[in-house]
UniProtKB/TrEMBL annotation:
InterPro entries: VASH1. The active site is at C124, H161, S180. This is Vasohibin-like protein. It comes from Polytomella parva. One of its GO terms (cellular component) is cytoplasm. It comes from the Eukaryota.
């Protein structure tokens, strides 16, 4: 048996380390710092082989108001959701866009156009902006912003989320568009019979992910006119799910749904 000391294994090449890091996107802050240092140690050919170029610009569905009626609503909404999902979720703490809701609707729609032009990652509020922009003019649909406030059972941290619920007038069905870290908290198929049904589904999804739903905020239908200079009503009905039984919240949803008008898209 040899008494010679075992030679240490050679350190992995910077390129191999970088390749390992970028394979697990989204990157943590520490991984981003490591990747930045490794990039400077790699050759141009090695970096090009990673195919880390900018993502392709999303191609929005093109339906005129007349043509949209000839395409099944779920097919149209699926195309819109594909555009939203293609931008990917922004896991960083900040935003790449102006996400203020306290401005004229036409300015919010300007941000939606910017989303398509730059194709940077988005969070739930930008997904709502984009969903409203891409479905504008489809008058067989109402687009209702729904906000959620929840608390994690694990760390008691409070989280906020928003989706765009859609109602198809001819069928009376409800669905949703959106983006989230969790698949169950983003889009929903156009299959729910009422607002209470689809929001109950979201509540069950929160339970599944270990969250207690605290509040739900129901807005009024968003305007189909992209140049409308009025303000959107993002929070019209407030439901305190932490204080009241869910059945009572559902009764309020039924009242809201019953007093809503099907032919008035501007509030």
């Amino acid at each position: 048996m040899s008494d010679e000391p075992t030679k240490p294994s050679p350190a992995p090449k910077p390129f191999l380390l970088l390749k390992s890091i970028v394979s697990r996107v989204p990157l943590s802050d520490s991984d981003q710092e490591k990747a930045a240092k490794l990039i400077s140690q790699c050759t141009l050919e090695e970096l090009q082989s990673l195919n880390l170029g900018p993502p392709p610009r999303p191609i929005p569905p093109k339906f005129t108001a007349t043509a949209a009626d000839k395409v099944p609503p779920q097919q149209r909404l699926s195309q819109v959701q594909r555009v939203i999902s293609s931008l990917q979720y922004n896991h960083h703490a900040g935003y790449f866009y102006n996400v203020s809701k306290d401005r004229p609707w036409s300015r919010v729609m300007d941000t939606a156009r910017e989303l398509l032009a730059t194709a940077l990652p988005i969070k739930c509020i930008e997904a709502v902006f984009l969903g409203a922009y891409l479905t504008a003019g489809w008058l067989d649909l109402d687009r209702i912003p729904i906000g959620f406030k929840s608390r994690s059972h694990q760390d008691q941290e409070v989280h906020r989320h928003i989706v765009l619920v859609v109602r198809h007038f001819p069928s009376g069905k409800y669905g949703a568009l959106g983006i989230s870290r969790r698949k169950e908290l983003m889009d929903k198929e156009l299959k729910f019979e009422s607002l209470r049904d689809i929001l109950t589904n979201y509540r069950e999804s929160y339970d599944m992910w270990g969250h207690k739903l605290l509040k739900v905020y129901v807005g009024l239908p968003l305007d189909h006119d992209l140049l409308y200079n009025g303000m959107a009503i993002w929070r019209y009905l407030h439901l305190n799910a932490a204080k009241h039984k869910w059945s009572k919240c559902c009764n309020q949803l039924d009242l809201f749904e019953g007093t809503d008008t099907e032919n008035d898209h501007r509030y």
